[in-house]
Specification:
heterodimer, A: 341 residues, mainly alpha, MetI-like fold, B: 393 residues, two-stranded antiparallel sheet, 18 helices, 72% helix
Chain lengths: 341, 393
């Protein structure tokens, strides 16, 4: 391992070390106590909770599995369905995000893009016109087709010769990453109305689509640095051997950046796993995810903390396991992103 | 699609390419070659389209929605353009109390707080302005930021410090963002500095400190509800001893806000910690060794060498957290439901409440106000702080 900086050549003094351990230990307590409380509450009977706080299993109170039995067996499918939804939506959206993100990031790191600002403006203007036409009663396939047709026509005839400023790779990457700045609430109502029109509200598909859009900027942000570290010579030699762009990406770039891909996947997965706002808007019963189920506990059953604790533990268990395995990757990814971002 | 021919699939070897080059290319080969030439577009377009369709168009539509009145009618809805009526409602009309809060009259103490903070703000901006070339554009930029800051400060003081005032969702969000991020940064920096030392068992602390970030905010919010319960929570005996047994923190505006901020602190300090720790560990050791030789003490080393070295990363994590913190929603919604009254409501929660009551127009107006504030704060921060900190190296 590379030598690390030490606070002094001899390391911390005894007093310094003691104070450090005290502060670090205190924060460890701050972090772990809520989790401990969650864990013991899950094994308490209602009477143990309602009669005031008890702290130690087997000493203060006799642990019981009743809450677990209720959540896992009595409720059965009502717990299983949201859990499966969360797993399926999280996994599917993360895979799709990774595919789109990796393709876009690879493109941005290896090709030179020079998009005319004029084309972008024309495209947006035509999109707005098409939307206005739909609003006025034009059938939408017609509006989309004529909009796209006009754009292609204008591009080949007029815009090709037009000068003006152009957007380069850095601009496109910045545009993608800056979407993360957007408060989700500013775009969720139109997305809600879109899925309402498509009759896709409360489906897993709708959630997957929304999560891909929400997490794509993060994938681009984290993957940028992994692709930069791959030596371009390997790709050049493969290209001389006759491999096309897609084969290079599939056989050389992706295998080489596997650690980064895995880390990014898991990071996005955790975000999708924990997501609450979009799920709250876009799903109700069928596509309900775990955060919604946990949040609904208060409304449906009042503060029945023993059940709530079990649900929260079921939800955070896998994530905590991931965090312990992934600690190094996450630190590296976030740092690189932060330095370059 | 095109059926793939055995020859085309084994294109990898050089011979096959040479043979293929001599023949007249077949349609599917031409297609593959075209696809290869267009690789740049093919790779980037899907992502661009996803963002365009699900971020940019909704954003434009939200803008339109914020300027209209939404009415559900039989079999659909009607959207009527109403201009700035929704924004007027937020700033002057029926939603004013909810959004801006109610202004109270401040006494001498309130005025002193205001003048002190305002003086500090103007002084900081003046220093920032005089540190670079004084051009008319920079004067204009600093002037706008100074004015916006003073206006925000005035609103905050009139609603928070005055006994008769009540902060609206805008001010409450500022409290969460600026108070929360400052706390998270200080705690994160302290922990990262301690963990960067050569202490046995550092790895344990690193993993433990990371955990809260990965836990769903909804779960964190419920856990903190249990912890802060003065009757059945773990600290009930303490609350009892202090005489707060029957006083529920959720009924006190500041108690509830502080509970939200503690939950947020618990959850997001890890982000600051982990990035700052990585930055501390990757800094170069020569300047520090040189300083030790020169007899500098630890504090001097930290202040003059370590801090400038990690300043770019520190500035970036603050920026990221500032932007993210403006979106706060899960914690107040689950922990307090926005209550008591609207005391803990953030802007996102405000927009959600309006959406639920089918007032899409005003909801979109709140969302756009949030977007405006985030963008303004983000740009001001990047121009005034971030650039200087990252260029200092």
């Amino acid at each position: 391992m590379a030598p690390r900086w030490r606070s002094s050549p001899t390391g911390p003094t005894l007093l310094g070390a003691t104070v450090s351990y005290l502060v670090l230990g205190l924060w460890t307590l701050v972090v772990l106590f809520p989790l401990y409380w969650l864990a013991i509450t899950a094994f308490k009977l209602p009477v143990h909770v309602n009669e005031g706080p008890t702290y130690l299993p087997f000493v203060d109170f006799q642990p019981s599995l009743h809450a677990w039995r209720y959540i896992l067996i009595d409720l059965g499918n009502d717990t299983l369905r949201p859990y499966l939804n969360t797993v399926v939506v999280g996994a599917t959206s993360s895979v799709l995000t990774l595919v789109l993100g990796a393709a876009a990031t690879y493109g941005l790191s290896r090709f030179t893009y020079r998009v005319r600002v004029a084309s972008v403006l024309v495209f947006l203007l035509l999109a707005v016109l098409a939307a206005a036409a739909v609003q006025l009663g034009v059938p939408w396939p017609l509006a989309v087709a004529s909009g796209l047709g006009t754009f292609v026509l204008l591009r080949t005839v007029v815009l090709r010769k037009a000068g003006g400023p152009r957007l380069g790779n850095a601009d496109i990457a910045f545009w993608m990453i800056s979407q993360r700045m957007l408060p989700p609430v500013a775009i969720v109502i139109p997305i809600y109305m879109l899925f309402q029109q498509l009759r896709m509200l409360d489906t897993r598909t709708a959630l997957v689509i929304a999560y891909v859009a929400a997490n794509l900027p993060i994938a681009v942000w984290l993957l940028r640095d992994y692709f930069r570290t791959i030596p371009i010579e390997l790709e050049e030699s493969a290209s001389i051997d006759g491999a096309n762009r897609y084969q290079i990406l599939w056989r050389i770039v992706l295998p080489l950046s596997l650690p980064g891909l895995v880390a990014t996947f898991l990071f996005i997965f955790v975000l999708a796993w924990n997501e609450y706002l979009l799920a709250l808007f876009l799903s109700s019963a069928n596509a309900q995810t775990m955060p919604l189920l946990v949040a609904a506990q208060n409304a449906t059953r009042g503060p029945q903390w023993w059940y709530m604790s079990v649900l929260i533990l079921l939800m955070i268990g896998p994530v905590i396991a991931l965090a312990i395995v992934l600690e190094r990757y996450i630190a590296r990814g976030l740092l690189l992103g932060a330095v370059r971002g | 699609m095109h059926e793939s021919h055995p020859v085309t699939t084994q294109r990898a070897s050089g011979d096959a390419v040479a043979i293929a080059a001599r023949r007249i290319p077949r349609p599917q080969e031409r297609f593959l070659a075209w696809l290869d030439r267009q690789a740049g577009a093919v790779l980037v377009l899907p992502a661009v389209l996803v963002i365009l369709v699900l971020s940019i168009f909704p954003l434009l539509f939200s803008l339109y929605l914020s300027l209209s009145r939404f009415q559900p009618v039989a079999g659909g809805f009607r959207i009527d353009f109403v201009g700035f009526a929704n924004y007027r409602k937020l700033l002057l009309g029926t939603e004013r109390e909810h959004f801006l809060g109610s202004l109270g009259h401040i006494g001498v103490g309130g005025w002193m707080v205001f003048l002190l903070l305002a003086g500090l703000w103007v002084f900081l901006l003046w220093r920032s302005l005089s540190s670079g070339p004084v051009t008319s554009l920079r004067i204009l930029g600093h002037g706008i930021v100074a004015f916006a800051g003073l206006l925000a400060l005035w609103l905050a003081v009139r609603t928070i410090a005055a006994s008769t005032g009540r902060p609206g969702t805008l001010v409450v969000t500022w409290v969460y963002v600026f108070g929360g991020v400052a706390l998270q940064f200080l705690v994160g920096l302290l922990l990262a500095t301690l963990c960067a030392q050569q202490l046995p068992g550092r790895r344990f602390f690193r993993v433990v400190f990371l955990l809260p970030m990965m836990i769903t905010p909804v779960g964190v919010a419920y856990t903190f509800r249990m912890l802060t319960d003065t009757g059945k929570g773990p600290f009930a005996p303490v609350a009892n001893w202090l005489g707060y047994a029957n006083v529920s923190w959720v009924n006190d505006p500041w108690g509830a806000r502080i509970a939200v901020m503690i939950g947020d602190l618990w959850q997001w300090t890890p982000f600051m910690f982990i990035v700052l720790l990585a930055a501390l560990e990757s800094q170069s050791s020569e300047p520090i060794e040189a300083a030790i030789v020169d007899g500098a003490n630890r504090w001097q080393i930290f202040w003059h060498i370590t801090l400038p070295q990690i300043a770019p990363v520190a500035s970036t994590v603050i920026l990221i957290r500032l932007i993210e913190a403006f979106k706060i929603f899960d914690m107040p919604n689950v922990l307090t439901g926005g209550g008591p009254g609207t005391a803990t409501e953030s802007l996102t929660l405000h927009a959600y409440v309006l959406w639920r009551s089918l007032d899409y127009g005003t909801s979109a107006a709140v969302a756009y106000s949030l977007l405006f504030v985030v963008t303004f704060v983000g740009i001001a921060y990047v121009r005034l702080m971030h650039r200087r900190l990252t260029e200092a190296l």
